[in-house]
């Protein structure tokens, strides 16, 4: 019951938060130099044609009017049209956002498995070789650029070993993508019972997921290690040791108490990666949402950018609400 | 005699965030302290004794009631700027936490002088006097708190309070974090300073044997109320309130045959100060309880000169055990035990024998 | 509380009089803490034995090595300390030689510890009932249901009001005194032969302390457990222990049956501790050397020499042995105070 009232309170704040986010990003995007009308018509356009286009795009209106028009259209489910793809932004994003989400979610799962496992082992023996390895790993994971690491992986696993498919999209050209249901190829292929498409999608995911997963395991590892060390050194862990509790149980209880911090860093990474995966998306020609937004920025195509910001914001807000609920479940001290 | 501090009908309530309930930390507390006198304020944790101290030094604003310093309400004094003269000072429990670890001892001690606009030379002079007063080597003025033992740190805390030559010092558990030897030294020091300077103390503590020996008068607090107050020796020798008696019976003196007799053994723990019962607050833990106690708060009753008690059955409580001066009996015993002399040297036949223990 | 003074007085003294095979014998236990510049000896060849069913008090000020001793007996000295010598013989075996899995089976099962600041010592994310039951499940191998039943019985035994509700409570919902009862329940659920109480009553109010002491007393007697009662409050040991040891700088300075220690103390340090409690400035001045400047420690000789009003040249030169000055009464001093 308490959870429900809490949820209701949180959701009431979502709408004003979203309007705020849209306003700020609208102003930012508008401040990018470059006239869409000029870019759309090309270098040979006449001034009259440009002015006409500006008028039909509403660019001659004052800024606040443009914002209200955008908001009004939003309420009708119209996120504007991209002049590059000439398709409604909503359609583009519905196709591309799941691609990014699939990539980022799987990468994060890998990062969690690697980071939490190594972090726990490193904390158990602060002077052991795993701890030293973790230190080196945490440092290099933070220092390596993701696109560079992606290129190294492509070189090794595609160019040299031929283990991975060509870094050109989410599925083999010759394989027909499954009917979109969730938008994630792997899930959709499984739902359709199409194993060929599933394996193809999975093999295309391998290298980008390795890239993002291994690099983002770094912060999770450091956070797990630091919190676990603190928890294993805490009074209650020590008392368990003094009471003859087997070490695996001591570690399990300490991990249980470390989870809130680990969940925090995971949620931050999740929100960040939606846009932060863009370089990797470009390297693997992923066709994801981040790539779509960056091209929008480069070409003064503002509606894809705004649409992407809106999608990411909603996603992040959902992640944060879920995380808050997880905190309540993890720590009995919060519920009061 | 002129009271240096008078507290009249003091109340303090803390609202609980996100709730309509309030914590009733202090409930109608009145007492006074004379110049050069020590009033011991005792009680369990949660009794509100620290809150009383914080109201007096102005860290907390009372919800109702007046606190007068030399007849003038402290709220007025603060407005008129008289408060900066440092005539009311304080010492806290944790010496290490009340000193800035990156500040030299000398600077810490001189700090309370800064708002008083005293010139540098006088300031140095007063700081030097203060450190001598607490019997620390003046060399330590250049030391950092971490170089000092806990007992020495507390001496610095006292020097910092004394540097403004206060007339009243609120001491909130100043010895509780200390080992017995350091504790004894601090008590000794406080008494010496009082004798020299006629400083009044409000000594807040849960350590009854310390309070017994440092205080002239004592006030026993329970759930934000002073349930009994009076001359320290009288209250300790023949408590009239079951709570005072129960507290005293819990004191363990380091002597296997000495025990403070009491007919009260307090069961359970101090209840929450959020929903206070209608009658006497102790009713749920008190062996002397009668029906009346559960519905009616006992009024203050004068049972001797300056001896006030809130209990319907104070006569039965006082008569339930013979009056005894166990603390003084212990002191006399200790004099006998500790008055023995050392032998010239350990006899040779014992010099080599090692433990079997 | 008043119960254990009068009636148990005789019983306690009877225990001292009848020597039996010790349950626990700590022999020449040394623990050192390696530091960046020098290695600090925290326990210096400490020997102490506890008879079955006996309560031995160990008094020391902060830094004397109390907690180090409590935890080293269980083979886990506080970091970065390491046991550099000595034995802890329990039921005929040196438990410090046992491999970790063997030792773990003893801890919490046969040798239990009760710790101070109990709210921090309990796992904040597990219910009280589960934490107590875990001890029974781990050490006695009983079923989950049986363990929960035992935990509930134990909660009643430690006199927690409303035990049904407390089984599902979390540590932060308990007062310090309640949490201390829970820790005692955890320590005693397996009926250990030996209980180490490491300053278990510090930080509690006197009335709660009295309740906890009589609880420990009763449960130890019911189980026939022996106890090492470590504390900084010498007053408790005068009423609660049959023998008392005084610890200073990692060494036992005096060890004696309760009556001897409190009525005929021999070591100047013990006398100073008692003087500190006497509230007589005269006695305090006689037995203590006030600390004014930075404290000096002598490397050789008696570790108390720097603070001792009786110290002579020899005290700074040669460490005194722990000598038996009367039957069962030991003092580590060249010039012990004795009745003549």
Compose a concise summary of this entry:
The complex is a heterotrimer of chains A (336), B (357) and C (340). By secondary structure, chain A is mainly alpha-helical.
Give the strand order of the largest sheet of chain B, numbering strands 1, 2, ... along the chain: 6-7-8-3-9-10-12-11
Rg of chain B, alpha carbons: 23 Å
Helical residues, percent of chain A: over 70%
At the fourth level of CATH, the homologous superfamily of the largest domain in chain A is MetI-like
Main beta sheet of chain B, described? 8 strands, mixed
What fraction of the residues of chain B are assigned to beta strands by DSSP? Answer: 15-25%
Could you tell me the number of beta strands of chain B? 12
Q: Which residue ranges of chain B are poorly predicted, with pLDDT under 50 across at least 5 consecutive positions?
A: 353-357
Number of domains of chain A: 2
* Amino- and carboxy-terminal Cα gap of chain A: 13 Å
Q: Can you count the helices of chain B?
A: 14
Biggest interface pair, counts: B-C, 68 and 79 residues
Shape verdict of chain A: globular
Low-confidence stretches of chain A: none
Order of helices and strands of chain A: HHHHHHHHHHHHHH
